[in-house]
Write a structure and sequence with these properties.
alpha+beta; 4 strands; 36% helix; globular
Length: 98
């Protein structure tokens, strides 16, 4: 279940992803498969090669890409999420949820 997003934030992320830009969106997220994780960051880009290349910088396996039509993305949570957002200078994505 996802919550904590404004519609315009989601729409902007979708526009950027469809345009072939790497973009980040973080929201509250609860999933029993991942206890202790209450947020997820989706890093999306419709250009799959660009997204794969971005993921390789962080040793993310290509098989982890969620191949949603129009919005392929990596789901980041836990230590991966924090480390990658820190490296990308995007910790603001997490700070609003703490």
């Amino acid at each position: 279940m996802a919550f904590g997003l404004k519609r315009e934030e989601l729409n902007q992320w979708k526009r950027n992803v469809r345009a072939g830009k790497i973009d980040f969106i973080t929201h509250y997220w609860l999933d029993d498969r991942f206890p202790g994780c209450n947020t997820v960051t989706k890093v999306g880009c419709s250009d799959l090669e660009k997204l794969k290349e971005w993921g390789r910088k962080y040793n993310l396996d290509e098989s982890w890409i969620d191949l949603k039509p129009k919005y392929p993305h990596f789901d980041l949570f836990g230590d991966y999420q924090w480390q990658i957002l820190k490296t990308e200078n995007r910790l603001d994505q997490l700070e609003r949820f703490k």
